[in-house]
Design goal:
Radius of gyration: 21 Å
Strand order of the largest sheet: 2-1-3-4-5
Largest sheet: 5 strands, parallel
Distance between the termini: 65 Å
Number of helices: 12
Order of helices and strands: HHHEHEHHEHEHEHHHH
Shape: globular
Length: about 270
C-alpha cells in the first residue's frame, strides 16, 4: 500500500541547533497551535466512534486502547485516569502497550513489529463483540496494532483508531478511523510532539464525552470521582456545598457517610423531600 506518511516529512524549520532558546520555544509553540485545528476537522469521525462506544458500554462492554511507544503510553494514561475521575471500574477502559508494562517506562526492542502479540494481549481479557478496540499509532503502520485490529474485524469486534496519516494501513483497517493530519513535526519524525498532542486531545474527547453520555457527570461536576486524596476530598466537599447550599461541616459529614458526591446528593435530596 502506498501513502504519504506526513508525520515523517521534513520539518519546515532547518538548522535547529543554531536557534536560540527563545526561537526554539516560539517555533515549537507555533507548530503546536495548529493541532487543535487539525483535531477539529476530525470531530465527525470522533463522534461516530463515541456513539458506538457508548452503545457498547451501556451493554456491559469495554474500551481497549492499543499502541506502541508514545501512542501506547497515552492510551494507558487515559485509561488509568477514568476510574478516579469518573468512578468506573478499572476493567472498563483498558490500555495495552506493545512490550507489556515494561514498555511504559523503557522501550522494548521490536515489540511494535510483532504481528501476533496484539491479539494475544487482547485474548488475556476475553475480548468479545461486546467490546470496542481502538488502535493508536501516529504513523498508522505499527504491526502490533494493525494486525490486532485486523483480527478484531474478523471476530466481529468494533474497531476504531487514532492516527495522523490518512490512507495508512491502520486508517484503512479500522472500521471507525479518526485521522488527525498534523503534518511534519518540528523535529523531523518526532511524532511524540504534534502527533502525540493530537492523540492526547482526541483521547480526552473520547473518554470524557463517553462518560458524560453514560451519566458520570452532573451539571459540570465529577460527582462519581474517587476520593483518593485530600485534594479530591476537599473538592467533593465544595461540590456539595455549592450543589446543596449547605455549610462545610454538613458537607463533610455527608461525604464521609456516603463515600462519594453523587450518593451524598441523592441522600440529601430524599431527606429534604
Amino acid at each position: 500500500m502506498s501513502f504519504t506518511k506526513t508525520t515523517e516529512q521534513a520539518s519546515k524549520y532547518n538548522d535547529l541547533e543554531k536557534m536560540s532558546t527563545l526561537e526554539l520555544l516560539t517555533n515549537i509553540n507555533t507548530e503546536d497551535k495548529t493541532v487543535p485545528d487539525a483535531v477539529e476537522q476530525a470531530i465527525p469521525q470522533i463522534a461516530a466512534l463515541v456513539a458506538e462506544i457508548v452503545t457498547k458500554l451501556r451493554d456491559g462492554g469495554r474500551i481497549f486502547y492499543m499502541g506502541a511507544g508514545t501512542s501506547g503510553r497515552l492510551g494507558i494514561v487515559d485509561a488509568s485516569e477514568c476510574p478516579p475521575t469518573f468512578g468506573v471500574a478499572h476493567d472498563v477502559v483498558i490500555g495495552l502497550i506493545a512490550g507489556g508494562d515494561t514498555a511504559i517506562r523503557k522501550a522494548v526492542e521490536n515489540a511494535e513489529d510483532d504481528t501476533v502479540q496484539g491479539w494475544i494481549d487482547l485474548q488475556q481479557y476475553h475480548i468479545s463483540s461486546k467490546d470496542v478496540v481502538i488502535g493508536i499509532a501516529a504513523s498508522g503502520t505499527t504491526p502490533y496494532v494493525v494486525s490486532a485490529l485486523q483480527k478484531c474485524n474478523e471476530e466481529g469486534i468494533i474497531t476504531g483508531c487514532i492516527t495522523c496519516n490518512a490512507g495508512s494501513p491502520l486508517a484503512t483497517t479500522a472500521q471507525l478511523p479518526i485521522v488527525v493530519t498534523v503534518g511534519p513535526e518540528f523535529v523531523t519524525g518526532s511524532s511524540r510532539m504534534k502527533a502525540g498532542t493530537a492523540q492526547k486531545l482526541v483521547l480526552n474527547m473520547i473518554s470524557t464525552t463517553t462518560m458524560i453520555q453514560l451519566g458520570k457527570v452532573k451539571g459540570n461536576k465529577m460527582v462519581d470521582m474517587q476520593l483518593s486524596n485530600d485534594k479530591l476530598v476537599d473538592r467533593g466537599i465544595r461540590m456539595l456545598m455549592e450543589e446543596l447550599k449547605i455549610e462545610r461541616t454538613l458537607a463533610s459529614e455527608l461525604l464521609t457517610q456516603h463515600g462519594n458526591v453523587r450518593n451524598a446528593i441523592e441522600y440529601y435530596g430524599t431527606q429534604k423531600n
